[in-house]
Amino acid sequence: MAALIANHALNPAGGGPALEVVALGKSYAGQAVVAGIDFAVPTGTCFGLLGPNGAGKTTTLRCCLGLTIPDSGTIRLAGRAVPADAGAARARVGVVPQFDNLDPDFTAHENLTVYGRYFGIGEAAMRARIPELLDFAGLTGKEHAPIQSLSGGMKRRLTLARALVNDPDIVFLDEPTTGLDPQARHLIWDRLKRLIALGKTLILTTHFMDEAERLCDRLAILDHGRLIAEGAPRELIRRHIEPQVVEVFGEAVANWAQTHEQLGERMEMAGDTAFFYCRDAAPLLAVLAGETALRFVHRAASLEDVFLKLTGRDLRD
Ligand code: ADP
């Protein structure tokens, strides 16, 4: 592992959290988009901010970075007050935005060099640093590649490498794997786990519950600008949902599910699937064994079940 990336865990403000948000509020046109939220991210952990579209995630992250000025509340990032001291805080932070905004006219090497300038890193220092950044991103040999020639996964990894130019202690990632195929996604997860192992603090938003479950020590679910749940992924599953789920599909499943509703603690229809949430699925499985027209999947409850229970199944555009 490259020495420049592997250096240290931050100890901001004498051991305080990497990020602390208290009573954060932001409205647009009289509409509360962030409606008084509190959370803290301990140094060296990965924190996930989940929520349906429009929940207020990006606004929250923008406030934390000093890019949007909140109406109320306090934020401390890397031990600094934001927005008052956002510049100093951001010197310790890397950002992977939702959409890759690499300069298409520059090569990978040039993109990293230009970004380094924002942090006052000179060309010689960047020349020394770039090989290890590209190595970390699995892009060795691509330094002179034009951006257009890189795949979506490569661009994402280059954006991640760019976020590490200033050797940040805290990395914000807004939907880091949206639009990537499974192979590219796994590669990003691997790199993010490496950063966590190095003591970095990661703060990410994602729509992928398996991503949140794999990476996050703790996460918060935001809806309509409010935090509606917070905890470790396993803890949230234990707290909010029955441990077993049986998904039943097939012809006329809706009628069948209604007449067998009592076999689960809860039953929900979504499209042509009946979701039975059960403390003990054995009685339901015994009945299903005799139903040749129905197919089913029996599985452990997941974070996605928690998310759908708390935020509902209605589409948010
Ligand atoms: P999320 O990231 O969870 O999808 P956002 O924070 O982007 O949510 O948006 C939350 C709400 O705030 C949305 O309804 C969005 O339209 C609104 N919003 C965000 N930024 C602005 C802005 N600059 N001006 C007006 N409304 C905004």
Summarize it.
This protein is of the alpha/beta class and 317 residues long. The protein has eleven helices and 14 strands. The protein folds into two domains: 13-232, Rossmann fold (3-Layer(aba) Sandwich); 242-300.
Could you describe the 3D structure shown?
- The chain has two domains: 13-232, P-loop containing nucleotide triphosphate hydrolases (Rossmann fold, 3-Layer(aba) Sandwich), CATH 3.40.50.300; 242-300.
- The chain has 317 residues and is of the alpha/beta class.
- The strands form three sheets. It has a six-stranded mixed beta sheet with strand order 6-7-8-3-9-10, sandwiched between helices. A four-stranded antiparallel beta sheet has the order 2-1-4-5.
- The chain has helices at residues 57-64, 86-90, 108-118, 123-136, 152-163, 182-197, 209-215, 233-240, 253-259, 282-288, 303-311, and strands at residues 19-28, 31-41, 46-50, 72-77, 80-82, 93-96, 170-174, 201-205, 218-223, 226-231, 244-250, 266-270, 273-278, 294-300.
- Helix content is 33%, strand content 27%.
- The chain binds adenosine-5'-diphosphate.
- Adenosine-5'-diphosphate binds next to α1.
- Adenosine-5'-diphosphate (ADP) binds at residues 28, 33, 51, 53-59.
